[in-house]
Amino acid sequence: MLNSQWLNTFLTLVDIGHFTQTAEKLYMTQPGVSQHIKKLEAQVGTPLLIRIGKRFELTAAGETLYRYGLKRLEEENSVLSSLQEDDAHQGECRFACSGSMAMYLYPHFLERQRHAPGLTLSMEAAPNHKIINDIKENRVDVGIITHPVDTSEFEQTAIGSESLCVVAPAQYPIKENDLSALYQLGFINHPDGKHYLQQIHQANYPDEHFDFNSITLSGYINQLGQILLPVAQGLGFTVLPEKAVRMFPNQDAIQVISLHRNVEQQLYLIVKKHRPLAKRYTFFIELINDLIKRPS
């Protein structure tokens, strides 16, 4: 890597065209300027200039290095400028949350981007453990998870809750809180399906062991927008957050089963500790808090 101080001396010398004046501008001695040039030539392995009396001419290598130096200086100035400017309307915003939450939030996020096209949005749908790991590894800046993290690495804020719904085909006859009948119908699983169903089971049948392997499985799908399609066609039941259920277009083909004990899943906004967020995140965090509190 080129020595930055020597390169800066070289660029200044070329711009001014005089050793003495270069030394004065850089608060150096003339021999000091000459020494920097010699060291830079030794580093690149070729002469950079030819002295002609009190003047000098750049060699071909000197011209190439000068152009490179100007470009590097421009890039450094650009980086320094961007570091000093924290524009709420520019830059990348990286979020991660469950698939249902992503489906709910993303259209509202896009509306913000439409008014601030300098923003770049990244929305990752992922389970809790991946969200936590991605924030830890700086791949994501803001996450929404469903349980608090017992570590000092993160800052986490409770932002509300979401109801879990047991969804069955509209025409399927079932009594209130009769999960055993649904277990025979078959479960449409998805990335969070087992976790959701376990919460429902433990809340309504606290004295019964939850054995996921004993439940008939009718299918698995990881595309949130399609999880309720097989349910609507009578092929099984599933468990999803209420907001995801309400967004399904064919509401007449499904039913939400009444439970003795509804399950509210707590939501936590999580960021990495000692990693301040840019100003562009302020709007989105306020929006998340507002949207979570809205009724489904």
TrEMBL record:
Keyword Nucleus: no
Pfam families the record matches: HTH_1, LysR_substrate
Transmembrane domains' residue ranges: none
Key words of the record: DNA-binding, Transcription, Transcription regulation
InterPro entries (UniProt xref): LysR_HTH_N, LysR_subst-bd, WH-like_DNA-bd_sf, WH_DNA-bd_sf
GO molecular function, one term: transcription cis-regulatory region binding
Domain annotation HTH lysR-type: ranges: 2-59
Domain of life: Bacteria
Family: Belongs to the LysR transcriptional regulatory family.
This protein's name: LysR family transcriptional regulator
Origin species: Photobacterium aquae
